[in-house]
From TrEMBL:
Keywords: Hydrolase, Metal-binding, Multifunctional enzyme, Nucleotide-binding, Signal. This is Bifunctional 2',3'-cyclic-nucleotide 2'-phosphodiesterase/3'-nucleotidase. GO terms for cellular component: outer membrane-bounded periplasmic space. Gene3D superfamilies: 3.60.21.10, 5'-Nucleotidase, C-terminal domain. It is found in: Cell envelope. Belongs to the 5'-nucleotidase family. Residues 42-284 form the Calcineurin-like phosphoesterase domain. It catalyses: a ribonucleoside 3'-phosphate + H2O = a ribonucleoside + phosphate; a nucleoside 2',3'-cyclic phosphate + H2O = a nucleoside 3'-phosphate + H(+). It comes from the Bacteria. Its cofactor is a divalent metal cation. Residues 1-35 form the signal peptide.
Amino acid sequence: MSHLSGLHPISRRALLGGFAASSALVVLHPFAARAANNQAHLRIMETTDIHVHVFPYDYYADKPNDTLGLARTASLIDGIRAEAGNSMLIDNGDFLQGNPLGDYVAYERGMKEGDKHPVISAMNVLGYDVGTMGNHEFNYGLDFLNKVLAGAGFPFVCANLTKGMLASDPKKDELMFKPYVIIEKRIRDGSGATSPIKVGFIGFVPPQIMTWDAKNLEGKAQTRDIVDAAKAWVPVMKEEGADIVIALSHSGIDGTGQSERMENASLYLAGVEGIDAIFTGHQHLVFPGPKDFDGIAGADAKKGTLMGKPAVMGGFWGSHMGLIDLLLEKDGSSWKIISSTSEARPIYHRDDNRKIVADVKDKPEVLAAAKADHDATLAYVRRAVGKTSAPLYSYFALVADDPSVQIVSNAQAWYIKQMLKDGEYKDLPVLSAAAPFKAGGRGGPDYFTDVAAGDIAIKNVADLYLYPNTVQAVLITGAQVKNWLEMSAGMFNQVKAGAKDAVLLNDGFPSYNYDVIDGVTYQIDLSQPVRFDKDGKLINQDANRIVDLSFDGKPIDPAQKFVVVTNNYRAGGGGKFPEIAGDKVIFVAPDTNRDVIVRYIVDQGTINPSADANWSFKPLADTTAVFESGPKGRQYAAAVKGAKIEDAGDGENGFAKFRLVL
Ligand code: MN
Ligand code: MG
């Protein structure tokens, strides 16, 4: 995607060797190739949202992964530098947290004064010019952060984070970091001569860190609106002689209109006078590029501009290198931008069979810088970090309340209560929705969660939560809670009372859409037809599979308001659950459900995942239904609470068959 050949077919020029040390064919950026005597090409490279991914390794799956890793992105750098007349390298934040390597250093190894953090050691190898703060930099507290940053061989900027209260004038804010730096360097022009330039970099963090990291920041910090801070500081940078001003915006692109303390403010930041180019991030998306940002007024996702200024978002976890290329022209003693391009260059692609193919190799120096902590992390993810007092398995997750779903629910509820504790929703009841991800089906008879009682390791969390979703919460009514569950109940075929060995599960309904909602109690009446079709359309007005739905021991009030914590997929309308969509979302967490489960286990030490049997099937006289599950489930069948399950022999393709006595 977005290679140079597509951007500049005419001025594309190749030369052998050139700036590169190797004799590989280097395609000069057209700006470098065509810069005249009074012109210079400046390329600025961005990494963003690295989240401690130095090695191309998925620690949860405990295996290599070609879609991520700074060691891969880094090996793009040499080639990219060779294509450019002059280059700089920046990081756009969220480097410190987000995988088990980060958790290992924070929770196990620790940071003493003078210690080096592995992600910083890796970054130091690459010669960054400057970095900014992402929201996740604050997850482990300010002390930890300060010790980490002390090891960096480059400065950090952030213009909208203060130490205390906000001043009446943003320029009087007592800031936690330098708001900006102006880097003086010499650049080579088209004639080969060098002359000085002052490149200003100013950084921004989402103001929401005051909520997301309240426990680390309350009373110690405050945040200011991104655009307000830019309007105050950019003119100061110009006064100090910055030839060009580059925004390092750890904030995404949201075209729904500017608002106060906006989380994804990069589009409106681009509108601030004096800013010449914008590096964005935080959303873990790719800009420019197909699909992610189509149809946003002011954003050109083909050209890579926001409000007409060059902008880029370099994916996440090292998946892409963000590039902004500027053709500068000398204007008296200063430089001005006369042309620009932007590009997000990937480290891998998918072949015709959608198989992932790595486009680059590891840069060995980067791996070496983090190797010791990487090895320690491998041991860490394989070692016990907590205990589970009951086995965690999903063999019967579709027929009874289940421990592997229960623990996800419990962790989500634990998390969201902390997040909402001081806000306007603090007095509302919290429900938690979670679905079994590993429940056989096409995954086969071994495709189930199965963690024995006793020690629980970090890598087991991947088993509990398969997808890198993030936590979100919605605000809905009791009536909408019931419809949510009615939709879930599409998991089952209708079973007539008196039927023998009816086929229970609806093959066309994915298990990840079988949400169990904790915090309420209910039964599912299988004798009823479904209320909604697979698109959430009401098809049986009089059908009610969900019966005896109660909250706090009393029938649920259809008008009562509830907070339901779930994931970004469901809250965003995934699965087409009736009325559940983005307009109901009241909380968008920066944290993955997986991270929340890890924190919950570390916090609790011993977890008690026994299902609370808050749902069951409504008894039907003389009725049985059959379903398939993994044969390893046989050992647990008799112990399942809230459902009577019998062994019914072997199923097909290695599955075991079970009978549910309704
Ligand atoms: Mn991020
Ligand atoms: Mg439960």
